[in-house]
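Summary for the lay section of the report: proteins are chains of building blocks that fold into shapes. Here we show the chain for Alanine racemase and then a coded description of the shape we predicted for it.
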Amino acid sequence: MAFLNLHKGNLKQNFEFLKDKFNAHGVAWGVVSKLLCGTEIYIQELLNLGVDEIHDSRISNLAKVKEINAEVKTVYIKPPSKRNLADVVRYADVSLNSELTTIRWISEEAVRQERKHQIIIMVETGDLREGVMGDDLVGFYEKIFHLPNVEVIGLGTNLNCLNGVMPSTDKLVQLSLYKQIIELKFNKDIPWVSAGTSVTIPLMLNHQLPKGVNHFRVGETLYFGADLFDDSTISGMSDEVFELCAEIIEMQEKPLLPTGTLAANPQGEITQIDESLYGQSSFRAILDLGLLDVDPKYLLYDKEEFEILGASSDMLILDLGRNPKKYEVGGLVKFKLKYMGALAILNSYYIEKKII
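The coded shape description reads as follows.
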Protein backbone atom coordinates (compact mmCIF):
# COMPACT_ATOMS: atom_id res chain seq x y z
CA MET A 1 0.00 0.00 0.00
CA ALA A 2 1.33 3.46 -0.90
CA PHE A 3 1.47 6.10 1.82
CA LEU A 4 2.57 9.69 2.39
CA ASN A 5 4.87 10.78 5.20
CA LEU A 6 4.92 14.28 6.63
CA HIS A 7 8.23 14.89 8.40
CA LYS A 8 7.20 17.13 11.28
CA GLY A 9 10.77 18.17 12.10
CA ASN A 10 11.29 19.52 8.59
CA LEU A 11 7.92 21.28 8.66
CA LYS A 12 8.85 22.92 11.96
CA GLN A 13 12.23 23.97 10.54
CA ASN A 14 10.51 25.73 7.64
CA PHE A 15 7.87 27.31 9.86
CA GLU A 16 10.42 28.73 12.30
CA PHE A 17 12.56 30.02 9.42
CA LEU A 18 9.62 31.91 7.91
CA LYS A 19 8.38 33.10 11.29
CA ASP A 20 11.78 34.66 12.06
CA LYS A 21 11.99 36.34 8.65
CA PHE A 22 8.47 37.76 8.80
CA ASN A 23 8.99 39.01 12.34
CA ALA A 24 12.20 40.73 11.29
CA HIS A 25 10.35 42.56 8.51
CA GLY A 26 7.28 43.38 10.62
CA VAL A 27 5.00 41.33 8.38
CA ALA A 28 1.93 39.40 9.52
CA TRP A 29 1.20 36.09 7.80
CA GLY A 30 -1.16 33.18 7.61
CA VAL A 31 -0.61 29.61 6.45
CA VAL A 32 -2.42 28.34 3.36
CA SER A 33 -3.68 24.84 4.15
CA LYS A 34 -5.41 23.98 0.86
CA LEU A 35 -2.59 21.59 -0.11
CA LEU A 36 -3.50 19.43 2.90
CA CYS A 37 -7.01 18.78 1.51
CA GLY A 38 -8.57 18.73 4.95
CA THR A 39 -6.30 15.96 6.31
CA GLU A 40 -7.02 16.39 9.99
CA ILE A 41 -3.74 15.07 11.41
CA TYR A 42 -1.80 17.47 9.17
CA ILE A 43 -4.00 20.46 10.04
CA GLN A 44 -3.49 19.64 13.70
CA GLU A 45 0.25 19.59 13.10
CA LEU A 46 0.06 23.14 11.72
CA LEU A 47 -1.85 24.29 14.78
CA ASN A 48 0.68 22.55 17.04
CA LEU A 49 3.36 24.79 15.51
CA GLY A 50 1.49 27.83 16.76
CA VAL A 51 -0.22 28.82 13.50
CA ASP A 52 -3.10 31.12 14.43
CA GLU A 53 -4.29 32.10 10.94
CA ILE A 54 -5.30 29.47 8.36
CA HIS A 55 -6.17 30.17 4.72
CA ASP A 56 -8.00 27.73 2.44
CA SER A 57 -9.99 27.64 -0.79
CA ARG A 58 -12.39 24.92 0.41
CA ILE A 59 -14.91 25.96 3.03
CA SER A 60 -15.21 22.40 4.36
CA ASN A 61 -11.52 22.56 5.29
CA LEU A 62 -12.03 25.82 7.20
CA ALA A 63 -15.00 24.24 8.97
CA LYS A 64 -12.64 21.48 10.11
CA VAL A 65 -10.15 24.06 11.38
CA LYS A 66 -12.89 25.75 13.40
CA GLU A 67 -13.96 22.36 14.76
CA ILE A 68 -10.41 21.74 15.99
CA ASN A 69 -9.86 25.25 17.33
CA ALA A 70 -12.56 27.90 17.04
CA GLU A 71 -10.08 30.65 17.98
CA VAL A 72 -7.97 30.27 14.83
CA LYS A 73 -8.54 33.07 12.31
CA THR A 74 -9.83 31.54 9.06
CA VAL A 75 -9.53 33.11 5.61
CA TYR A 76 -11.37 31.94 2.49
CA ILE A 77 -8.96 32.64 -0.36
CA LYS A 78 -11.08 32.79 -3.47
CA PRO A 79 -14.16 34.83 -4.39
CA PRO A 80 -17.14 33.10 -2.74
CA SER A 81 -19.91 31.59 -4.82
CA LYS A 82 -23.51 32.53 -4.12
CA ARG A 83 -24.41 28.98 -3.14
CA ASN A 84 -21.85 28.69 -0.36
CA LEU A 85 -22.18 32.16 1.14
CA ALA A 86 -23.89 30.95 4.30
CA ASP A 87 -21.01 28.60 5.07
CA VAL A 88 -18.40 31.18 4.12
CA VAL A 89 -19.83 33.63 6.65
CA ARG A 90 -20.22 30.87 9.21
CA TYR A 91 -16.74 29.32 8.98
CA ALA A 92 -14.50 32.04 7.50
CA ASP A 93 -13.64 35.16 9.47
CA VAL A 94 -12.27 36.78 6.31
CA SER A 95 -12.80 36.25 2.58
CA LEU A 96 -11.07 37.52 -0.57
CA ASN A 97 -13.51 39.35 -2.84
CA SER A 98 -13.62 41.12 -6.19
CA GLU A 99 -17.37 41.32 -7.00
CA LEU A 100 -19.64 44.05 -5.68
CA THR A 101 -22.75 41.86 -5.95
CA THR A 102 -21.13 39.10 -3.91
CA ILE A 103 -20.07 41.49 -1.16
CA ARG A 104 -23.65 42.77 -0.89
CA TRP A 105 -24.84 39.17 -0.53
CA ILE A 106 -22.18 38.59 2.15
CA SER A 107 -23.42 41.66 4.01
CA GLU A 108 -27.00 40.37 3.93
CA GLU A 109 -25.92 36.91 5.10
CA ALA A 110 -23.74 38.36 7.87
CA VAL A 111 -26.72 40.37 9.11
CA ARG A 112 -28.85 37.20 9.14
CA GLN A 113 -26.19 35.35 11.13
CA GLU A 114 -25.51 38.35 13.37
CA ARG A 115 -21.81 38.14 12.54
CA LYS A 116 -19.17 40.61 11.40
CA HIS A 117 -17.40 39.42 8.26
CA GLN A 118 -14.07 40.87 7.15
CA ILE A 119 -13.05 41.33 3.52
CA ILE A 120 -9.85 41.70 1.54
CA ILE A 121 -10.53 43.41 -1.78
CA MET A 122 -8.46 41.71 -4.47
CA VAL A 123 -6.84 44.05 -6.99
CA GLU A 124 -5.77 43.14 -10.52
CA THR A 125 -2.02 43.72 -10.95
CA GLY A 126 -1.34 41.99 -14.23
CA ASP A 127 -1.71 38.21 -13.91
CA LEU A 128 -5.38 38.41 -14.97
CA ARG A 129 -6.89 36.07 -12.43
CA GLU A 130 -9.22 37.56 -9.79
CA GLY A 131 -9.13 41.25 -8.94
CA VAL A 132 -10.76 44.65 -9.36
CA MET A 133 -9.09 46.85 -11.98
CA GLY A 134 -7.04 49.60 -10.35
CA ASP A 135 -8.91 52.42 -12.07
CA ASP A 136 -12.19 51.10 -10.61
CA LEU A 137 -10.93 50.49 -7.08
CA VAL A 138 -11.91 53.77 -5.37
CA GLY A 139 -15.44 53.61 -6.76
CA PHE A 140 -15.67 49.94 -5.81
CA TYR A 141 -14.66 50.66 -2.23
CA GLU A 142 -17.08 53.59 -2.00
CA LYS A 143 -19.98 51.26 -2.72
CA ILE A 144 -19.13 48.75 0.01
CA PHE A 145 -17.41 50.42 2.97
CA HIS A 146 -20.76 51.43 4.50
CA LEU A 147 -22.44 48.00 4.13
CA PRO A 148 -23.63 46.52 7.45
CA ASN A 149 -21.72 43.67 9.12
CA VAL A 150 -18.91 43.88 6.55
CA GLU A 151 -15.48 45.36 7.24
CA VAL A 152 -12.76 45.86 4.63
CA ILE A 153 -9.48 44.98 6.35
CA GLY A 154 -7.15 44.82 3.39
CA LEU A 155 -6.22 45.11 -0.25
CA GLY A 156 -4.67 42.03 -1.79
CA THR A 157 -3.36 40.62 -5.03
CA ASN A 158 -2.29 37.34 -6.58
CA LEU A 159 0.60 37.01 -9.00
CA ASN A 160 2.11 34.05 -10.85
CA CYS A 161 -1.12 32.05 -10.42
CA LEU A 162 -2.40 32.01 -14.01
CA ASN A 163 -0.15 33.66 -16.58
CA GLY A 164 3.07 33.44 -14.61
CA VAL A 165 3.45 37.19 -14.03
CA MET A 166 6.04 37.60 -11.29
CA PRO A 167 5.76 40.08 -8.42
CA SER A 168 7.90 43.19 -8.56
CA THR A 169 8.64 46.09 -6.27
CA ASP A 170 6.80 48.44 -8.64
CA LYS A 171 3.62 46.35 -8.64
CA LEU A 172 3.59 46.11 -4.86
CA VAL A 173 4.30 49.83 -4.42
CA GLN A 174 1.25 50.52 -6.60
CA LEU A 175 -0.92 48.35 -4.36
CA SER A 176 0.35 50.19 -1.29
CA LEU A 177 -0.50 53.51 -2.97
CA TYR A 178 -4.07 52.35 -3.57
CA LYS A 179 -4.36 51.75 0.18
CA GLN A 180 -3.11 55.27 0.95
CA ILE A 181 -5.50 56.85 -1.56
CA ILE A 182 -8.52 55.06 -0.08
CA GLU A 183 -7.54 55.85 3.51
CA LEU A 184 -7.11 59.55 2.73
CA LYS A 185 -10.28 59.87 0.67
CA PHE A 186 -12.61 58.02 3.03
CA ASN A 187 -10.82 58.52 6.38
CA LYS A 188 -10.88 54.76 6.88
CA ASP A 189 -8.08 52.52 8.12
CA ILE A 190 -7.19 49.49 5.98
CA PRO A 191 -4.81 47.40 8.11
CA TRP A 192 -3.48 44.91 5.53
CA VAL A 193 -1.76 45.12 2.21
CA SER A 194 -1.88 41.38 1.54
CA ALA A 195 0.40 41.26 -1.48
CA GLY A 196 2.53 38.36 -0.46
CA THR A 197 2.26 34.71 -1.41
CA SER A 198 5.10 32.21 -1.59
CA VAL A 199 6.29 33.69 -4.87
CA THR A 200 6.84 37.06 -3.18
CA ILE A 201 9.08 35.75 -0.38
CA PRO A 202 12.35 36.16 -2.37
CA LEU A 203 11.62 39.90 -2.69
CA MET A 204 11.40 40.10 1.09
CA LEU A 205 14.57 38.05 1.62
CA ASN A 206 16.40 40.34 -0.83
CA HIS A 207 15.11 43.48 0.93
CA GLN A 208 13.03 44.51 -2.10
CA LEU A 209 9.63 44.41 -0.39
CA PRO A 210 7.93 47.82 -0.11
CA LYS A 211 7.29 48.85 3.48
CA GLY A 212 3.56 49.13 2.84
CA VAL A 213 3.21 45.37 2.23
CA ASN A 214 2.48 43.90 5.65
CA HIS A 215 0.64 40.62 5.13
CA PHE A 216 1.51 37.32 3.42
CA ARG A 217 -0.45 34.17 2.57
CA VAL A 218 2.05 31.30 2.48
CA GLY A 219 1.70 27.68 1.41
CA GLU A 220 4.19 26.29 -1.11
CA THR A 221 7.35 27.72 0.45
CA LEU A 222 6.34 26.41 3.88
CA TYR A 223 5.84 22.86 2.59
CA PHE A 224 8.67 22.72 0.03
CA GLY A 225 11.19 25.37 1.07
CA ALA A 226 10.86 26.69 -2.47
CA ASP A 227 12.24 29.87 -3.99
CA LEU A 228 9.72 30.27 -6.80
CA PHE A 229 11.85 32.82 -8.64
CA ASP A 230 14.56 30.32 -9.56
CA ASP A 231 13.02 26.95 -8.62
CA SER A 232 15.62 26.32 -5.92
CA THR A 233 15.43 25.52 -2.21
CA ILE A 234 15.87 28.53 0.04
CA SER A 235 19.00 28.24 2.15
CA GLY A 236 18.01 27.25 5.68
CA MET A 237 14.80 25.53 4.58
CA SER A 238 13.98 21.88 3.82
CA ASP A 239 12.49 20.41 0.64
CA GLU A 240 11.76 17.13 2.42
CA VAL A 241 8.58 17.81 4.36
CA PHE A 242 6.62 15.30 2.24
CA GLU A 243 7.78 11.84 1.18
CA LEU A 244 5.71 9.47 -0.93
CA CYS A 245 6.39 5.77 -0.40
CA ALA A 246 5.08 3.11 -2.79
CA GLU A 247 5.44 -0.66 -2.42
CA ILE A 248 6.85 -2.91 -5.13
CA ILE A 249 4.19 -5.48 -6.02
CA GLU A 250 6.06 -7.12 -8.92
CA MET A 251 9.78 -7.21 -9.75
CA GLN A 252 10.91 -9.24 -12.77
CA GLU A 253 13.40 -9.12 -15.63
CA LYS A 254 11.50 -8.46 -18.87
CA PRO A 255 12.19 -7.43 -22.48
CA LEU A 256 12.58 -3.72 -23.17
CA LEU A 257 10.05 -3.87 -25.99
CA PRO A 258 6.47 -5.16 -26.07
CA THR A 259 5.47 -7.89 -28.51
CA GLY A 260 2.32 -8.14 -30.59
CA THR A 261 0.09 -5.74 -32.50
CA LEU A 262 0.18 -2.27 -30.97
CA ALA A 263 -2.84 -0.02 -30.45
CA ALA A 264 -3.60 2.95 -28.22
CA ASN A 265 -3.55 2.30 -24.49
CA PRO A 266 -6.35 3.62 -22.20
CA GLN A 267 -4.59 7.02 -22.09
CA GLY A 268 -4.68 7.23 -25.89
CA GLU A 269 -0.93 6.67 -26.23
CA ILE A 270 0.71 4.45 -28.85
CA THR A 271 4.10 3.00 -27.92
CA GLN A 272 6.91 3.93 -30.29
CA ILE A 273 9.30 1.06 -31.07
CA ASP A 274 13.06 1.56 -31.05
CA GLU A 275 14.23 -1.48 -33.03
CA SER A 276 17.76 -1.17 -31.62
CA LEU A 277 16.39 -2.42 -28.29
CA TYR A 278 15.19 -5.81 -29.60
CA GLY A 279 16.67 -8.66 -27.60
CA GLN A 280 17.56 -6.47 -24.61
CA SER A 281 16.01 -6.74 -21.16
CA SER A 282 16.01 -5.01 -17.80
CA PHE A 283 14.46 -5.40 -14.37
CA ARG A 284 11.03 -3.86 -14.08
CA ALA A 285 9.17 -2.95 -10.91
CA ILE A 286 5.45 -2.36 -10.59
CA LEU A 287 4.37 -0.04 -7.76
CA ASP A 288 0.99 0.12 -6.03
CA LEU A 289 0.43 3.65 -7.27
CA GLY A 290 -1.23 4.93 -10.42
CA LEU A 291 -2.79 7.75 -12.38
CA LEU A 292 -5.78 7.65 -10.06
CA ASP A 293 -3.42 8.97 -7.39
CA VAL A 294 -0.90 11.17 -9.20
CA ASP A 295 0.49 12.07 -12.61
CA PRO A 296 4.07 10.67 -12.77
CA LYS A 297 5.39 13.99 -14.12
CA TYR A 298 4.95 15.43 -10.64
CA LEU A 299 7.18 12.81 -8.97
CA LEU A 300 10.80 13.67 -8.15
CA TYR A 301 13.44 10.92 -7.93
CA ASP A 302 17.05 10.02 -8.72
CA LYS A 303 17.05 9.13 -12.40
CA GLU A 304 20.32 7.23 -11.97
CA GLU A 305 18.44 4.65 -9.90
CA PHE A 306 15.46 4.06 -12.22
CA GLU A 307 13.26 5.49 -14.92
CA ILE A 308 9.47 5.78 -14.90
CA LEU A 309 8.22 3.99 -18.00
CA GLY A 310 4.54 4.75 -17.63
CA ALA A 311 1.45 4.28 -15.53
CA SER A 312 -2.01 2.81 -15.66
CA SER A 313 -4.88 3.76 -13.38
CA ASP A 314 -3.51 1.86 -10.39
CA MET A 315 0.06 0.86 -11.22
CA LEU A 316 3.33 2.68 -11.92
CA ILE A 317 6.00 0.91 -13.99
CA LEU A 318 9.72 1.48 -13.37
CA ASP A 319 12.77 0.42 -15.37
CA LEU A 320 15.48 -0.45 -12.84
CA GLY A 321 18.13 -1.38 -15.38
CA ARG A 322 20.27 -4.06 -13.73
CA ASN A 323 18.72 -3.12 -10.38
CA PRO A 324 21.88 -1.73 -8.73
CA LYS A 325 19.96 -0.79 -5.55
CA LYS A 326 18.72 -4.38 -5.18
CA TYR A 327 15.03 -3.50 -4.99
CA GLU A 328 12.76 -6.46 -4.28
CA VAL A 329 9.07 -7.29 -3.96
CA GLY A 330 7.62 -5.79 -0.79
CA GLY A 331 10.25 -3.08 -0.70
CA LEU A 332 9.51 0.63 -0.85
CA VAL A 333 10.39 3.18 -3.51
CA LYS A 334 10.43 6.77 -2.22
CA PHE A 335 9.67 9.99 -4.08
CA LYS A 336 9.75 13.68 -3.36
CA LEU A 337 6.86 15.61 -4.87
CA LYS A 338 6.24 18.73 -6.88
CA TYR A 339 3.44 20.92 -5.55
CA MET A 340 0.78 19.57 -7.91
CA GLY A 341 1.89 16.01 -7.15
CA ALA A 342 1.49 16.56 -3.42
CA LEU A 343 -1.93 18.12 -4.05
CA ALA A 344 -3.04 15.03 -5.99
CA ILE A 345 -1.69 12.61 -3.39
CA LEU A 346 -3.25 14.50 -0.50
CA ASN A 347 -6.58 14.51 -2.34
CA SER A 348 -6.46 10.75 -2.88
CA TYR A 349 -8.58 8.66 -0.54
CA TYR A 350 -6.39 5.67 -1.36
CA ILE A 351 -3.09 7.01 -0.01
CA GLU A 352 -2.57 6.67 3.75
CA LYS A 353 -1.27 9.83 5.44
CA LYS A 354 1.30 9.52 8.22
CA ILE A 355 3.42 11.77 10.42
CA ILE A 356 7.10 11.03 11.02
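Put simply, here is one thing we learned. The radius of gyration is 24 Å.
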